[in-house]
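Our collaborator T.R. sent over the components below with a one-line note: 'Predict the complex.' Nothing else. No constraints on interfaces, no templates requested, no preferences about which chain binds where. So this is a plain run: every listed entity goes in together, and whatever single assembly comes back becomes the starting point for the next discussion.
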Amino acid sequence: MSALQIQPLGYALGAQVTGVDLRRPLDAQTRSTINDAWLRHLVLVFPGQDLSTAEQIAFSRAFGELDDHAFQPRYTHPEHREILLVTNKQIGGKPSDTRNTGRNWHTDLTFTARPAKGALLLCREKPPVGGDTMWANMYLAYETLTPRMQRFIDDLEAIHDASLVKGLEQRDPEKVAEMKRLNPPVAHPLVRVHPETGRKSLLVGQRIRGLIGLSDAESAAVLGFLNEHAQSPEFVYRHRWSVNDLVMWDNRCTQHIALPDFDQAQPRLMLRCSLKGEATGRILTATTSALSDREALMQSLAAIA
Ligand code: SIN
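Returned assembly:
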């Protein structure tokens, strides 16, 4: 019998999983129990998992195909494209461009047509205090809206834009230009249906430029309300990291934010595997590199009007 234990960490989401050694291959029963817990709690914390890069990749693969981060090609592990390095440590003698990754509320890779299914983040180094990450339950965000509001937003689409990733101005301009060129604005449903649970959730966040079919002012008002609502403290789990915590989140029904609540002179090193998701987006233009963001967006909107 498995010694696996699952202990909820929050009412809205989050559970701790103990009694499993993720360095070992998973048997079918354990994988299925973890997957069920993941669907139920959305964020799973596995403490004390001193995984090698290969072991993290192997465990992650048990839950889906891994993304090779082609949309952020210069931020990956030098030998393993499946691992994104999220760190404030120096890389090649320069501050890492990922030192401010995830500083606004977001769902991973919504600036691509294929947002991640989920992600697995391993903490290798952390500051003595702070450097926390918060996740919010987007099922609850949707389900607590009034039926009338749900009907109003049910078939809206939102324009997600990589240029709204926070802190781009602190990154290498050449890499930022490449990231924007690789990622023209993309439209995703504002309300999505989880492919495994069938539940509806809100896909909002701070990387959305507008809502298709609404004026700028209307978009700003609706998004302002939805974002504030989605970030309500009662929907949130805040994780205080320990070294060798592996956190696995369901990106299809959550959003998250990495807090800059720590002394940046202290190293923080996180390794992320992303699970490939389903294609839910429509790319709006392929010509962003030749145009200003505003011009590209106007052309995209004209094309779909
Ligand atoms: C991310 O958004 O994937 C980064 C999360 C973190 O560094 O805590």
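Summary for T.R.: Residues 286-296, 298-305 have pLDDT under 50 and may be disordered.
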